[in-house]
Amino acid sequence: MRKNFWRLIGVMVAFVVIVTLPTPANVISATPPKIRVPILMYHAVSNPPKDTPANWVENWLDPAMFRCQLKWLQKNKFTSISPDDLIDAILGKKQLPQNPILLTFDDGYADAWYSVVPTLKEFGFTIQVICRGHKPKLCPTSA
User: Fold this and answer.
1) Is residue 21 a part of any domain in this protein?
2) 79, exposed or middle or buried, with CB in 10 Å at 0-12, 13-18, 19+?
3) 97-120 pLDDT, tens per residue?
4) What is the spatial distance between Cα 67 and Cα 45, in angstroms, rounded to a whole number?
């Protein structure tokens, strides 16, 4: 996953550098691709532990609300994509679906795998899990 993250950052930096370099119009187009992809970042889908500091409670999402969000995305014909799909689209190597969306979970908490993935599968979505380095055993890279 880190490889994908740094690959995306590298592509974006390279794109900005290439677009801003003075070059003949027939060598490279200075028009960036018109790609718009909403990226939803989640932290945890569960009820926060009782000892959670008040300023951290907003990082947790009630499972019923998560289900409601997925239902809305499905009803509005969104299709989940991966970071690789987005990179390939930016590079012009791939066409994205009509309503692409990138769903991500940070920190790699177990609930992302055990409770979120079954709900995602029910609605036909995939996610990208971004894991913290000190707990790699908890973290599948994507689902």
Assistant:
1) no
2) middle
3) 999 999 988 766 677 777 788 899
4) 10
List the CATH number of the domain containing 118: 3.20.20.370
Whether residue 49 contacts residue 33, with contact meaning beta carbons closer than 8 Å, is answered with: no
Residue among 66, 114, 92 nearest 143 (CA): 114
Task: Give the pLDDT band of residue 3 (cuts 50, 70, 90).
Answer: low
> For residue 53, is it within any domain?
no
Residue 91 domain-assigned (yes or no): yes
Instruction: Note down the domain range covering 65.
Output: 35-47+60-138
Say whether pTM exceeds 0.90.
no
75 vs 78, 79, 99, 127, 140, CA distance in Å? 8, 11, 11, 18, 28
Domain membership of residue 27 (yes or no) is no
The pLDDT value recorded for residue 48 is 78
* Domains in the chain, number: 1
Q: Are strands 128-131 and 100-107 parallel, antiparallel or unpaired?
A: parallel
Tell me phi and psi for residue 122, to 5 degrees: -60, -35
Q: How far apart are CA 31 and CA 46, in angstroms?
A: 43
